[in-house]
Design brief:
The protein is an all-beta fold. The chain contains two helices and 36 strands.
Length: 437
């Protein structure tokens, strides 16, 4: 507390006012905060502690219409009508043994400064440095400490937020630390990103640096494992059975499609039958005809006519009416060849029979004469001159059917024989392939 006489309306009123502490600013690197106490600053010219005029340095130091009065080590906020009469400083009275002021000693006819530090007449602590001044001395604390009373107290630099990330206070100093993924910059305070990709990040394939960390990515055909670092192959073949028409083969980072023997890859996924009869890759003799079927070929004899039939063209056999054995046989047989896939959906149209010549007034019916003992096929007649062979049950290959498809013609208009009946057959060889395509 500080007493002061305030003159208001010619009356002396004794008031007590609280000294306002000076507002201290955060220390900079060049400040020591060891020479002077709060409210004073070190004057390099006079080498003394000099009072800070807070009324000049602090904007709007007093609020509510109060007036600011500077005071030793602080300031007062009083009504604007008040005035402060400072007490006179006590005079230093020389003694008879030392006619000089305190801190000086007589030498000849003059007073010279006493170096208390050299004479060890100071009261500085062992950790403090004694600095002689004119007429006195000061005790200075080491860097990183500030003087409170007679003691040196460590300055907690961390509360001034010198560090960008983490600050660690240590006696007389501090150190800055960075979060993982960062490193200290050249000023030892800021933190800069670490490019882990350039420093050997453990990504097995691709590394992408990000702020404070990194990401691992994989090439096409691979996926990131649970550890976030390793890339493992994607088994594309396990995703779907429709990637390849025949077989999918997984490879590191990709997959490929393969085809069975007798087929070739068309594009990247489909299999196309190789026509060995056209490419010349067959083993048929000159007396045989090459017939291409799914995945392979078949060699058939050029003359497939059996007694009592005789060959009249490449694929046609005729049974002469002059031979008694031909009485109950179809007049002609035409040979045809085809192939189908295994497990074909049913019912499925397989082969259309078409009459090439029809007598006027003739009525035609179609039937399977032989070769379908298991009832795997049936005939659906379309009209008087055509019918469709239908697959009734799903069949698996490889296997071969030889069906005699007969067209029976009845002509009631024949003048010389009533209800004249004749027939012709189509001998169809059907090869069922081993695959479903």
């Amino acid at each position: 507390m500080q007493g002061a006489c305030v003159s208001v309306l010619c009356m002396c009123i004794c008031v007590s006012v609280l000294l306002h502490s000076a507002i201290s600013q955060p220390p900079t690197e060049s400040d020591t905060y060891t020479e002077c106490t709060d409210g004073y600053h070190w004057d390099l010219q006079t080498e003394h502690c000099k009072d800070i005029n807070e009324c000049d340095t602090i904007p709007d130091a007093c609020k509510g219409g109060m007036k600011c009065f500077n005071h030793y080590g602080g300031y007062l906020c009083l009504p604007r009508s008040a005035s402060v009469i400072p007490a006179p400083e006590p005079a230093i009275t020389p003694t008879e043994s030392n006619p000089c002021p305190l801190g000086y000693e007589a030498q000849d006819d003059s007073c010279v400064d006493i170096n208390e530090c050299e004479r060890e007449e100071d009261d500085c602590q062992p950790s403090q440095q004694c600095i002689n001044t004119l007429g006195a001395f000061t005790c200075q604390c080491p860097d990183g400490y500030r003087k409170v009373g007679t003691e040196c107290i460590d300055i907690d630099e961390c509360r001034y937020r010198y560090c960008q990330h983490r600050c660690v206070n240590v006696p007389g100093s501090f150190s800055c630390q960075c979060e993982p993924g960062f490193q200290l910059a050249g000023n030892n305070r800021s933190c800069i990103d670490v490019n882990e990709c350039e420093m050997g990040a453990p990504c097995s394939q691709r590394c992408y640096n990000t702020y404070g960390t990194f990401l691992c990515r994989c090439d096409q055909g691979y996926e990131l494992d649970a550890d976030g670092l390793t890339c493992k192959d994607i088994n594309e073949c396990g995703f779907s059975s429709f990637l390849c028409q025949f077989q999918c083969v997984n490879e590191p980072g990709k997959f490929s499609c393969v085809c069975p023997e007798g087929y070739q890859l068309q594009g990247t996924r489909l299999c196309q039958d190789i026509n060995e009869c056209e490419t010349g890759e067959h083993q048929c003799t000159e007396a045989q005809t090459c017939v291409n079927i799914h995945g392979r070929y078949q060699c058939v004899e050029e003359n497939r006519c059996q007694e009592p039939y005789v060959q009249v063209s490449e694929n046609r056999c005729v049974c002469p009416v002059s031979k008694p054995a031909c009485r109950d046989l179809p007049f002609s047989i035409v040979h045809r060849y085809m192939s189908i896939t295994s497990e074909r959906s049913v019912p499925s149209d397989v082969f259309q029979i078409q009459a090439t010549s029809v007598s006027p007034g003739a009525y035609n019916t179609f039937r399977i004469r032989s070769g379908d003992e298991n009832g795997d096929f049936y005939i659906r007649q379309i009209n008087n001159i055509s019918a469709m062979l239908v697959l009734a049950r799903a069949v698996s290959g490889p296997r071969e059917y030889t069906l005699d498809l007969e067209m029976v013609s009845v002509n009631p208009l024949n003048s010389y024989q009533s209800n004249y009946q004749t027939s012709s057959a189509l001998r169809l060889s059907i090869y069922v392939g081993p695959y479903t395509f």
